[in-house]
Amino acid sequence: MNIPSSVALAVTALALSGAANAATIDWNTWSDNNGGSISTSSGPISVTYNGEMSGQYANYPSWGPSATFADGTVVANGPVAANGIVRLMGGGGSEAQVDRITFSRAVVDPVFSIWSLGQAGNTASFHFIGATPVFVAGGAGAEYGGSAITVSGNDVFGTEGNGTVQFIGTYTSISWTNPVGENWYGFDVGVAGVAAAVPEPGSTGMLLAGLTLTGLAVRRRSRH
What range does the domain containing 205 cover? Predict the structure, then answer.
């Protein structure tokens, strides 16, 4: 079957535009176990972490290879060593502790990268509460091999897995549990957008009133 050249060009253009539109992520840089900060073009966003405190490493892991955290289509870049990591060990099964990150202002479609989740013979997981992850990228880690993380519903699983997921929507916090114990795995969070400011009630009312008056004026003119 011959494909018209115009169609072929359109398909090529769509593929190129998809690659060009991959979001450049601003990643959180951890200052300690309690949180860190994301530098964005619209100002800094503070990230507060409440949960398991198993240790924070300023320059570990390598977050490599980079292809396991960025697919080049949705996410252009993964975290780097300088962003740091919070170490998690999990455990507790159905009684696992709830961990939470909170943003100082609302963010749009945040991404969440996970390093070295699980190990041979021990599949560990994140169970996200009220937030559904979407798989973006994954693969074997530079340090310990393994395979890509997998996503099922609100759960992310790994057997020595690296990967990145995205949460579609607007968030001020993300919560989860790590029901399976394992030594050890970690995470970082990033954003490519910040939610637009919500208009104040007074300004919203004025906007609606203005639109109503505009509509009435148009209707009156149409009658003449």
Answer: 24-219
